């Protein structure tokens, strides 16, 4: 049979012959004109991996647009696999090192509260009775119009470690929580800060101990995890929990890869010195959100940032009950993305763009019934890989119940997130609470 020989040596030599059928390609690798090894495989197998070789005007059953679709699907799956096994696998198989025994530092817990009477009544006593030798709790009452001030006054009589700061002036230069947090941090007497929200409740009495155990001589920031309670038969609760899990997988994986860009204010710790020397939130005071993620993005680096994934270090809060409230909260969170570093924008942008394009390409290829075996195999490869990596990561974050429907929820957020971006382009969110 006639064959086409493609040879590589110190001098490129290509010999081509035309054959009507049973075309084979033989690739020979030579050095000093001695053959090293040879691969033989039919050209039609190469067709599935090389659309350029596949396209031929003499084969009407393989039009160019179908080749582009199949190639796009393969490229999208490859990008997902790259993220799964290069970045997200770091979290999936992360093993937290046992911290060295060291003297526990004094800690200042800072909470900004605005009209949080019910949440403070439920959660603050638990925070004030942690199993930790030396810590203070600073609550900054940010112009509350409910009974927050009276409640805090009563708690102050009961707990000596509670310090209450009340803001009454209406003129502030910071949006959202940034001004009250700045006041609380400047009034803190301890070097190690631990930030949370009024609606958050730690998972255990050892919350402080587990978070600060991550500090060593080089650590200046510790990223914790903030979970949401599960509400039965609530679609919104499921969406919020998946969104929280998905975001955590991304920012924890980035931190383990050496470029931390985000933390959540519900469970975040850093040194007071770092805040004061960097002028706090001054560089982004006009952004309504960003007291957590922009600050982390600007100051966290590979050597000075660590994560804490022990279940005892988690904090829990209740998700929004109304879709409109959750939508407004998401709009606020999306205002911070433009302040991230370029590498972070590339990391997030490529992943979310691929999340948006993949379902559209996959559905189109399946509807056209083109190469069902190949396209189906690619889609299955993506879904199985996602279940493996997300399953391990979700297990560490105690959210395994979301695993089976994660591919569907991923498609939902592939639609929702661009809509929120478009909504912010039309009208920016203008208030914290």
Sheet having the most strands: 7 strands, mixed
Radius of gyration: 27 Å
Give the spatial strand order of the biggest sheet.
7-6-5-8-12-10-13
Mean pLDDT: 84
Number of helices: 14
Instruction: Note the gap between the termini.
Output: 78 Å
User: What are the secondary-structure elements, in order, as H or E?
Assistant: EEEEHHHEHEHEHEEHEEHEHHEEHHHH
Main structural class: alpha/beta
Number of strands: 14
Strand content: 15-25%
Q: What low-confidence regions span 5 or more consecutive residues with pLDDT below 50?
A: 1-60
Q: Shape, please? A: globular
Short description:
With 433 residues, this protein is of the alpha/beta class. The chain is built from 14 helices and 14 strands. The strands form 3 sheets. Strands 7-6-5-8-12-10-13 form a 7-stranded mixed β-sheet, sandwiched between helices.
Please describe the structure with a list of short key phrases separated by commas or semicolons:
433 residues; alpha/beta; seven-stranded mixed beta sheet; globular
Structural description of this entry:
The structure is a single chain. With 433 residues, this protein is an alpha/beta fold. It has helices at 43-47, 51-54, 64-92, 117-128, 148-158, 178-187, 207-212, 235-256, 272-277, 293-299, 323-333, 342-367, 372-396, 406-426; strands at 4-8, 13-15, 24-31, 34-42, 107-113, 135-142, 162-167, 192-197, 201-202, 221-223, 226-228, 268-271, 305-307, 315-317. The chain is built from 14 helices and 14 strands. It has a seven-stranded mixed sheet, with helices on both faces. Strands 2-1-3-4 form a four-stranded mixed sheet. Strands 9-14-11 form a three-stranded mixed sheet. β6 (135-142), α5 (148-158) and β7 (162-167) form a beta-alpha-beta unit. α4 (117-128) packs parallel to α5.
